Amino acid sequence: MTATEYASGYAHLPYVHAFDAYDTNQLVEKTALRLAREFAVEAVFARAEADIIRAAQLRDLPGQRTHSAVAFRDKIVMKDHLVGGPVDIPAYQRIDSAYTALAFIAEHGYPVVIKPVSESGSLGAAVIRDEPDLDAYLAGPWPGTSEIEVFVPGQMYHVDGLVAGGEVVFAHPFRYLNDCLSFRDNDWVATLPLTAQEPAYDRLVKAAHAILAELPTPEHTAFHAEFWITPDDRTVFCEVASRTGGGMISAMVRHAFGIDLDKEWLYAECGLPSTLPAPSYRPAGALCIPPQHGVLEHLPAGNEPQCVREVMVTGSPGQEFRGGVKSGLFLAGYIVDGDTEQEVAARLEHVAEWFSGEARWRPAELIEGIE
Questions:
Q1: What is the pTM of this model?
Q2: Are 284 and 260 in contact (CB under 8 A)?
């Protein structure tokens, strides 16, 4: 079961059910229930954030149940499980109106972050640094129940891995280059593995193990956890998802470690033997480039720098775009390799500069005649 625009990618399967407006179309649930009754269903596998809870509600068999799915999806419930535990949690609160937001700011001051409780990829997140920022936010459409938390300065990292049979069988920390919110400026974001020799490596792996132990973690799941390390050297929790990371993260893990996280997760859910390879590592990084505002005239392809090992594009010339939407959605994604992490980091920036110089855009108003 998938979105209409992705159905062609599943043509190798005997049954494919495609839906418009997939994330909010409740015919998805109706059809899923009919299929579950019609076939001898052994497992329900959901790798998209929008499906985590709807799949859990469907299950009356092994797999992630609703209370677990909510804890990995609702940022308030998630932090309620973790507060007072071994990993620092920023002060937070559920807000249902401007009044509760104002009360939180009166207690904690600026800056703060307001974000939907159940979105991914920084979609809808707003950094509120002062009263003019707050006024601009409150003047827009109210997004409904949200979370407000104190702003945490520092470098952001993520830990991606796999739980199988109730045990963490793979976990590795990565460093973001640029920022998770860089898509708002239509700028690129990249991610790079840490080496085991880096000081942050062990503490991030331990932090990931700690939060998974505190949460109602499914017996089998991929996970994508985010943390900050602050200027005063604290490890602070941001959020965690019971799925593989978005963007090009899964592809990077496959290139760097030889592990297909989605495949291993699916095999574990279905009770099939693991195909995890012996541990190995080669430096690789992932780069995601969002679209600009306007009509794409030329999308560079076929002349990528030699360091590029995998390419994924999600648009084509002639399409109109309105800039970046969320951190995990991109126009062009690249896997880049090198002999060292430092070389990979430099090459990621080089590929981003190459793309910027090669891609061509024109303003949409020149096509439509109006803004």
A1: 0.85
A2: no
